[in-house]
Design brief:
transferase activity; alpha+beta; 6-stranded antiparallel sheet; 16% strand; transferase; single chain; Ntn_hydrolases_N; Amidophosphoribosyltransferase
């Protein structure tokens, strides 16, 4: 992706269904669960880069013995650091005789992560702090296991400000700046309430104090706690948590915005943000890995019993389309097919752009996430050319003009030529991400293969999405221009990103989107600047309405122009300055209709269409415009609405 779009988070949960001795006997290690957690997280490492956290809850620990643990790290290479550190501790304890790995019960008693419930979280922070304290899982401790709570998730609540105000109205003192803390405290509040009610009921019945914890653990009603906690939430989320007694849950937002999958056999219950890691780590077939139904919560009790219950009425699904375009790993069979289809869907636009001449064009992609779409793009180009050749051969036959020279021209020449024209220096990119404000360095993230492009050629580069256009102008186009093509065509498998996201991806400031900037420029050029203030007043008015009545007034910015007109203005805006090269630049975007045709099933496309799946989305987009118009920076969904 040519702009620095922030990754969302990923989760991994491993719940062992057998005693540790079973895994020691069968797999020769009591750390089978820890190993599986590490692999699930490593297979999703593309989703989180700046911090990780792992947690463990042990079942049926004797009173007075620790039972819940976590490690978090936001340093470079935190994944390797955390797991290497735990393995080092394990081996050191074995050498010192603190426990015997041949006796798994001693591992459980002494090693922090020798438990049955293991949780892992990958974080790519999009706001707030970037230290270990901001990494999941979050832990709410108590000397009652049934009031102790550990929570992690892949989510963003659009109404975090309002949720914090709700806590304040109760008399609580929330920690602002993170909706994770808000979610933790909301669930924790209802857990406390439920626990207190049970305690008073049992105490009044004359139950002895020592017996009360066990009875509370048996009677605790986790489904009700989840229902009460989630009632005010507006956002996209996949949240997992464990109570100190060993009851755990995984829940998914009612619209299915954020992904969640699970795998079950007689040894393990496992959850992950992506399907393929579960298939790979547990050597499972595609049919054995299931999607958690939106609006439901899977609960696994400490005794291993499992249930799935709905905490919200069923709603139309709106899964994040950026999962399909960019985030999820391309080795998922459905993702792979859809990304190839997205590439192929651009063929007609590109063919027209290059002047219908394959012989004078080089086709490439901008690494690395666009590679799968590029294969589909080439397939589509070749299919088009085969159809042309067949038609021309049939015409020549009908006219009696089919000659060897004609066949040579049709079959041996003018075929789509795919090349590795662009290279990305990952090490350079990593370095720059740690050193802000290095514009000159950014221009060298990409490099080219020299002498591939000949005089008079068009160079076509496929990317998965174009958000801000900054990298395109400051780096990619400058380096592509060094090949001296007659024309550079950059095509995006995603449509024009016109509206902010508020459900997990950090695309929140409207004024940074190149498509929005282009529409504003066109309004000013057309003498329609008054539209900007008109939309501003409409957005402010919208924010005064009840949340369920709000609509997206920012659509008014785009109404006067076609997609092609906005794309043409984007092409002009990203044209690199101060170059000797004077060729043409054209930026092509996927159409909404083609995107929906490529993605089978529901398609959450609010970034492109402005059609948000929740009331919080409409509040966010209107407030984002108000903040842009008033010159204020920052994420609109960080504020009370």
């Amino acid at each position: 992706m040519s702009d620095s779009l922030k990754h969302e988070c990923g989760i991994a949960v491993v719940r062992l269904r057998k005693p540790l001795s079973y895994y020691k006997d069968k797999y020769d290690t009591p750390l089978w669960g820890v190993n599986k957690l590490f692999l699930l997280m490593e297979k999703q490492h593309n989703r989180g880069q700046d911090g990780i956290g792992i947690g463990c809850c042990k079942l049926d620990m004797p009173l007075g013995q620790p039972y819940i643990f976590r490690r978090r790290d936001a340093a470079k290479d935190s994944m390797a650091s955390v797991f290497r550190g735990e393995l080092k501790k394990y081996n050191k304890m074995v050498r010192k005789g603190i426990f015997d790995p041949e006796k798994p019960e001693t591992v459980k008693n002494k090693f922090d992560f020798g438990g049955e419930i293991l949780m892992g979280h990958l974080r790519y922070g999009t706001s707030g702090q970037f230290d270990s304290g901001s990494c999941h899982p979050y832990l709410r401790r108590s000397n009652w296991p049934t009031r102790t709570l550990m929570v992690m998730g892949n989510f963003n609540m659009t109404n975090a400000g309002a949720l914090n105000m709700k806590l304040i109205d109760r008399g609580q003192h929330p920690v602002f700046g993170t909706d994770t803390q808000t979610v933790l405290e909301e669930i924790g509040f209802h857990l406390d309430e439920h626990h207190t009610d049970l305690y008073h009921k049992l105490r009044d019945e004359g139950i002895e104090g020592r017996e009360i914890p066990e009875m509370i653990s048996e009677q605790i009603d986790l489904p009700t706690i989840i229902n009460e906690s989630a009632e005010p939430w507006d956002g996209g989320y996949c949240i997992s948590g464990v109570v100190g007694n060993g009851d755990m849950f995984v829940m998914r937002d009612p619209r299915g915005i954020r992904p969640c999958h699970f795998y079950i056999n007689d040894e393990v219950i496992a959850f992950a943000s992506e399907r393929v890691p579960l298939m790979t780590v547990f050597e499972a077939n595609k049919e054995d890995v299931h999607e958690l139904e939106p609006g439901t919560c899977t609960i696994v009790r400490r005794d291993g019993s499992m249930s799935n219950q709905r905490f919200h009425p069923e709603l139309p699904k709106s899964p994040c389309s950026f999962e399909r375009i960019y985030f999820s790993r391309g080795n998922d069979p459905d993702i792979y097919r859809e990304r190839k289809a997205m590439g192929a869907a651009l063929v007609d636009q590109v063919y027209k752009s290059i002047g219908s001449n394959f012989d004078k064009a080089v086709f490439a992609f901008i690494p690395n996430t666009a590679e799968t779409a590029y294969y589909g793009f080439l397939d589509g180009l070749r299919l088009l050319r085969r159809q042309q050749v067949r038609s021309e051969i049939m015409d020549a036959c009908a006219k009696g003009e089919l000659t060897e020279e004609t066949l040579d021209n049709l079959i041996m020449r003018n075929w789509p030529r795919g090349e590795k024209a662009v290279h990305k220096d990952i090490k350079m990119r990593t370095f720059i991400s740690q050193e802000k404000g290095r514009a000159q360095l950014v221009s060298h993230v990409y490099d080219i293969t020299y002498d591939l492009v000949k005089e008079g050629d068009a160079l076509v580069a496929l990317d998965d999405s174009i958000v801000r256009g900054t990298t395109l102008k400051e780096s990619i186009l400058k380096i592509l221009a060094r090949t001296n093509p007659r024309k550079i065509v950059v095509c995006s498998t995603a449509p024009q990103i016109r509206y902010p996201d508020c459900y997990g991806i950090d695309m929140s400031e409207l004024g940074k989107f190149i498509a929005f900037q282009a529409a504003v420029n066109l309004l000013k050029k057309a003498g329609k600047s008054s539209v900007l203030e008109k939309v501003y007043l409409a957005c402010k008015s919208e924010l005064d309405k009840p949340s369920e009545e709000r609509v997206n007034q920012v659509k008014g910015i785009y109404e006067s122009f076609t997609d092609e007109e906005i794309s043409a203005e984007v092409s002009r805006m990203v044209y690199p300055e101060d170059l000797d090269w004077h060729g043409e630049v054209e930026v092509i975007f996927q159409t909404i209709d083609n995107l929906r045709a490529c993605i089978k099933g529901p398609c959450g496309d609010w970034y492109f269409t402005g059609d948000y799946p929740t009331p919080g989305g409409f509040a966010t987009v209107n407030l984002a415009y108000v903040r842009w118009f008033e010159g204020a920076a920052g994420r609109s969904y960080d504020l009370p609405l």
